[in-house]
Amino acid sequence: MRAQTxxxxxxxxxxxxxxxxxxxxxxxxxxxxxxxxLNDKDSIVLxxxxxxxxxxxxxxxxxxxxxxLSDESTAINVIPEHQFIDAMYPxxxxxxxxxxxxxxxELVQQPTILEKFSDYHIRYLIWIEGNTETIENTGAITxxxxxxxxFGFAMWNDEAIYEAKIWDISQLALSGKxxxxxxxxxxxxxxxxxxxxxASVKADACDGMATQLKQFxx
Length: 218
Hints:
The protein is α/β, with parallel strands linked by helices. The chain has helices at 2-19, 59-69, 81-87, 101-107, 111-119, 201-217, and strands spanning 23-31, 43-48, 77-79, 122-143, 150-168, 173-194.
């Protein structure tokens, strides 16, 4: 009976290897202002929204989008998040950062802030809000000592929802919004050893957001 069950699980594993871990990404863009191409001196800043402790935007997601934007194919000058926040301390800490464009207009009235924005040649300030989370999981894995190892099957669905608000510093206005929603299913079959088949939900959401931002900014 155990051998028959193992064979069935092995067939299931082969099927999953052929079809598993696909993700689906939906992207939506809304332009408010007409954008112009960035020149060689212009820079952008990517910041994650962290005013809510329950749904903080992950720092690795912000870094991923920034790395994709600044690759050799586009050569967009992206100021690292931590560098910008440190230079602007304390105005862009989670508790003091401007929540909307009207707050930014008030902030840049301060000569020191305006000077730092000018020094960095910041053209766009991009706030990204959202996170990746598991929305459903089923199954179980049982592990025992000895040669029996682990046996079972588990699966879960991940969802990554992010929205980028692009602030045009030259006009002190909202230039547009980009939202991405990515879903995918991961599997964990176990025949003696667990074999994770993970959906790249956050990575695909990063790629989708970066690709759309490239089109928006260039």
